[in-house]
Specification:
This protein has about 290 residues and is of the alpha/beta class. It contains 12 helices and 10 strands.
Length: about 290
């Protein structure tokens, strides 16, 4: 269902408002580079500090700007099941190809609670659902058995974005739920995840280098492993630089340095520290990106 390279797209801001002119240009860049899809309103898109009205509009505009040329998987997760349902229904209404549902954060639900949460959201819509497992931000891990049960009981739960960092866990997911699409949530793990049956990546790096990420995923999908390794190791220093501070601080800073959009963020996200900015500039210059 969901294979290829997907960009966890930033939400550009200007004077504390969403900058839709830059947003459209960034999406056009993604289309031109051959990216498979975009994921608005995820962690990289600063969904946590968007108002409900902004959240809805950012997703609506993503569909409008994409014009069917790439898939749009909307981030509609919440720690409130009712809110996740509302956001997901809106994404369906405006024409999204699927939704990405982060594990409920702060509440720390049990595995039973996670199952019931996801089942209720999935049952409320007809479009495909991608589970999003990122314990570092949500405080809970969606266990492989829970993922397998959801894939079995909910026909539209078709994929999981795995950002646990554990290849052992991801192997267990594929063992217990072989038909579910396993999508890497970490640029640095795209190659190993695809080597165990993963279908692609939801990428931060592709905000600035969409063609590189698309080429890497295509190489793995075509069993061109030497080419994929070459791309991986060439760009690994920049991939690591994208996480020298909390995402999306580094990628937005890089995009600003490259003239793609402002580095403006909303508190509690703040500007990158001076030392890190200089390190980031040096890495971008080494790749002739600035």
């Amino acid at each position: 269902m969901f294979s290829g390279s997907f960009t966890a797209i930033v939400t550009p801001l200007k004077n504390n408002k969403v900058d839709y002119d830059s947003y459209k240009k960034i999406i056009e860049m993604q289309v031109a580079a051959g990216i498979s899809g975009i994921v608005p309103c995820g962690s990289t898109g600063e969904s946590a500090t968007l108002s409900h009205e902004e959240h809805d509009e950012v997703i609506k505009k993503a569909v409008e700007f994409a014009q069917g040329r790439l898939k749009v998987i909307a981030g509609t997760g919440s720690n409130s099941t009712a809110e996740a349902i509302r956001l997901s229904k809106h994404a369906q209404e405006v024409g999204c190809d699927g939704v990405l549902l982060v594990a409920p954060y702060y509440n720390k639900p049990t595995q039973k609670g996670l199952y019931l949460h996801y089942k209720e959201v999935a049952d409320s819509i007809e479009i495909p659902v991608v589970l999003y497992n990122i314990q570092g931000r949500s405080a809970v891990n969606i266990e492989p058995k829970t993922i397998a049960a959801l894939a079995k009981d909910c026909q539209n739960i078709v994929a999981v974005k795995e950002a646990s960092g554990s290849l052992d866990q991801m192997s267990q997911v594929k063992l217990l739920a072989p038909d579910i699409d396993l999508i890497s949530g970490d640029d640095a793990l795209t190659v190993p995840v695809m080597s165990i049956g993963g279908t692609g990546v939801i990428s931060v790096l592709s905000n600035i280098l969409p063609k590189v990420v698309a080429d890497l995923v295509n190489a793995m999908a075509n069993n061109e492993y030497e080419k994929a390794r070459e791309i991986h190791f060439k760009w690994l220093p920049l991939i690591k630089a994208m996480f020298m501070e909390t995402n999306p601080i580094p990628v937005k800073t890089a995009m600003s340095l490259m003239g793609l959009c402002s580095d403006e963020m909303r508190l509690p996200m703040c500007a990158m520290s001076g030392e890190h900015i200089e390190n980031l500039k040096a890495i971008l210059k080494s790749y002739n990106l600035i």
